[in-house]
Each structure stands twice: as C-alpha cells, then as structure tokens.
Amino acid sequence: MMRLVNIALIALVIATATWTYSVKHESEQRLAEIRKLERLIALEHETIDLLRADWAHLSHPQRLQALAERYSEELGLETPDASQFITASELPGPPQFDPGDAVGDIIAGEPDDALTTGSIGGER
C-alpha cells in the first residue's frame, strides 16, 4: 500500500513540475511579447515627435512667408484688400425651412410635439 502512495506522489510531483514548467514558459513568451510591443510603442512615440517637429518646421510662418513671396507669381498670390472682407451684417441670415419639416422645426427650435424617439419608454 505504501508503495502505491509513493508512486502516486511521484506522479503528482512530475505532473506539478510539468505544469510549472509550461506556466513559466508561457509567461516568458508573454513577457517577450510585451517587451516587443513596448519597443514598438516607443518607436511610434519617437516617430510622432519627429513628425510634430517636422510639421512645426514646415508650418512656421516665416518659412511660409518666404515661400509665398518666392512663388507669388506662379501661384497668382496677391495681398488681400480691405474691400474683400465683409462685415457680420452682410452675412446671410439663417436658412428658412418649410413648416412641418421635422428637421427644420428642430433646427428652428420648434420641435413637433408628436416627435418621439426609441429611447423614451414612458407614455405621454
């Protein structure tokens, strides 16, 4: 009987060691994957920083002014006159909608009382 218990315990120790090894191996694989992803994320952050610096350089007002002056004839660029600007009173008014147009009524601030949505479950 004692021999059977010893064999069972040895089998249990072997099974536990096998399970422990597989868990350790899987965790090492996951850790390697995490480190790889962290390196990729760091690379993307560096790329974003580089692109932001490049954008800041390309959109710098002095650079754009120099380019506008250099290519003004080719692009047909001109300095705007004061007569090209309008005042707020010259802007068109709000759009006019036909009565009964549900979207127009909502935009105009006059919602239809019969308008219901699926999110309201109560009765009127």
Can you walk me through this structure?
The chain has 124 residues and is mostly helical. The protein has a domain at 7-82. Helices cover 63% and strands 0% of the residues. The chain is built from 4 helices and no strands. The protein has helices spanning 2-58, 61-70, 72-75, 102-108. The longest helix has 57 residues, at 2-58. The protein is elongated. It starts with a helix and ends in a 16-residue tail after the last helix. This is Cell division protein FtsL. Residues 87-124 are annotated as: Disordered. It comes from Oceaniradius stylonematis.
Any descriptors?
single chain, Cell division protein FtsL, 4 helices, 124 residues, elongated, mainly alpha
Percent helix range: 55-70%
Can you count the beta strands? 0
* Residue windows where pLDDT falls under 50 for at least 5 positions: none
> In one word, what is the shape?
elongated
Global mean pLDDT? 86
Portion in beta strands: under 5%
Distance between the termini: 80 Å
